[in-house]
Amino acid sequence: IRDQWHTMTRTGKARRLLQHIGEPFVALHPEDARRHRIGDGQLASVENRHGAIVMRARLTTDQRPGELFVPMHWSSPFSARARMGALVQATTDPLSGQPESKFSRVRVAPCAVRWQGFLITRERRDDPRCFYWSYSPLPQGHLFELAGRDDPDRARRRLAALISEPGDADDLHWLEMQDPYIGHFRQAAVRNGRLMGVLFIHPKGDLPGRDWLIEMLQRNALEDMERRALLSGEAPDGGAESGPVVCACFQVGESAIRARIEAGDGSVEALGKSLRCGTNCGSCIPELKHILAG
Length: 294
Ligand code: FES
Description:
The protein is of the alpha+beta class.
């Protein structure tokens, strides 16, 4: 993908790059997705006799029917089950030794999980040890997208321990909202007015965006209203999420681009004039065209 290089040993440290595509994915044509009963954004397993991986499905007509695309970038430090090398057959070029990693025969299927969620922490401690996780560094913390097949209540207890440090339990103030009957939990930990971390879990992945909570993690002191809004995951003044970052150079989100298109910007050049997107390295231009094409 345009933002990452090889297995992200360098580019994976740049939060700005992961704001565009922050999770591994499998791209498939909507017709194939329908045949295999896979919804857009749902977790899907891709497997063959060599191994199996799990990633989020992206339905797109850019993908040829009968073929899947999986990026090569996500390795074990960034995700639990997305290392696509697991599916590559042991055929190598006789001279360079390079594996034939472009083509593998695979099966794709929906991947059932009991819950989905995300964890934002100030410190990175253990990996979450969930069935599925995917990691992105933040300016002052760490974001894990999560999904599990275990009991959500048990998962919540285990994961909340990744927010607090041993010995600091007395200083931490926990905010909680839970419905154990359906397995819906939201927790936030605050210490001396600073947000230390949040954990949101929902059986169907019905969750708010992450942007505002990530912004709160960067504050030295939360205002009263912000603190009270933490468990909603949304700004108290109803500020809109900027959506996924499309232009990494100028940090322009998809929502801002769509708003400008609605306001009459009908070309990449016009968007560049109003938002600057696409006017530096230009690697976001194909995506800008895609959004313009509607
Ligand atoms: S990503 Fe470089 S100009 Fe948009």
